[in-house]
Amino acid sequence: MRRTILSTMFLLATFATAAAQDLDSKYATNLLKPGTVAPDFTLRTADEKDIKLREFRGNYVVLDFWASWCPDCRKDIPAMKQLWSNLMDYNVRIIGISFDTNKEAWVNTYWDKYQMNWTQVSELKKWKKDTKIDRLYHVDWIPTMYLIDPNGRIVLGTVEIEKLRATLEGLRPQLKMSTADVMPVYVGGNEAMQQYLKEHQLYTLQTRKMRISANVKVSFSVEMDGTITGARVLDVAELKTNSPKYDKLSEDRKAEVLAAATEHFRKEAIRLVEHMPLWTPALKNGRPVKEKTTIVIEFDPYYKGPKK
Asked: What's the CA dihedral at 59, 60, 61, 62 to 10 degrees?
């Protein structure tokens, strides 16, 4: 009899585990795949501040889709709070995206009841009927969570917070300590920085002729006075060309052209960063502090200046 009971308990536990492991296969099949560029968005906080995803570049970003009326979402809140507490000193940012329509219920839940102290935004519109963010991110179920890397690409899409936790734990050796309360920002914001980078980047005759593009990741420090120091290239990625002239070259010549382009982009990225206008420095306890940050410079041979 005892053996039968134990066997039954074991089977029930197995089924429960399998069911838990199967949640993504049931509810996350339509989510954006790893490697996909995370769609940019602008959403508002309860106090009417615009939050733009692109402003978080250089950090890992967790998008937590939820609603105050969702029991499963509320059940995950303690685990999300623990994640936030464990990672608050690293370059990990959490953005809660609510599908609430009632502003008072939304604010009372995330602020008064649960003290969810990370960024909270909402369209305050009916999910799947009037909202847009769910269509951008294929959110068919809540809670849904995405992890986005510092370059703005999807690392993980899941409905299981334990998978999110495990993924972040696996990334911990790559995370950077954040000593600042407020991170440094380019004066004018990310859009102004991207405009500066595009308008001031230089090409060699060959890289322009061969229409070579690339994304260069650069790390640097923003000093207390807003000046830039210690710029270094971390990676040159997505090096590619779209030129018939390149296609006609021999394989050896192609390799030489790409190697020369890589070297040029590395040097040009450093030059662009070192000649940037002043940044607004990071703050710790209200005082300026030195802080490291990372940006990705997109070299585009087709860029012809801002639209007029």
From this structure: -160
Please tell me the CATH superfamily of domain 23-174, with its number. Glutaredoxin (3.40.30.10)
How far apart are alpha carbons 23 and 25 in whole angstroms?
A: 5
As a whole number of angstroms, the distance between CA 210 and CA 247 comes to: 9
pLDDT tens for 21-61 read 579 999 999 999 999 999 999 999 998 888 899 888 888 99
Q: H or E element: which one contains 144? A: strand 144-148
- CA angle centred on 261, ends 259 and 263, rounded to 5°: 70
Q: Is the pLDDT of residue 1 over 50?
A: no
pTM, full prediction: 0.59
Between CA 265 and CA 14 the distance in angstroms is 54
Do 233 and 268 touch, CB atoms closer than 8 A? no
* Helical spans, DSSP H, in 61-172: 71-87, 103-107, 133-136, 161-171
Residue extents of the structural domains in the chain: 23-174, 185-299
Cβ neighbours around 135 below 10 Å, total: 10
| Residues 248-262 as b or e (16 or more Cβ within 10 Å = b) | eeeeeeeeebbeebb
Q: 185-299 in CATH: which number?
A: 3.30.1150
Q: What is the mean pLDDT of residues 213-237?
A: 90
- 145-188 confidence digits (pLDDT tens): 999 999 899 999 999 999 999 999 999 888 887 667 788 999 99
Average pLDDT over every residue of 92-116: 94
If DSSP codes are grouped into helix, strand and coil, which group holds residue 267?
Answer: helix
Residues 266, 215: Cα–Cα separation, whole Å? 10
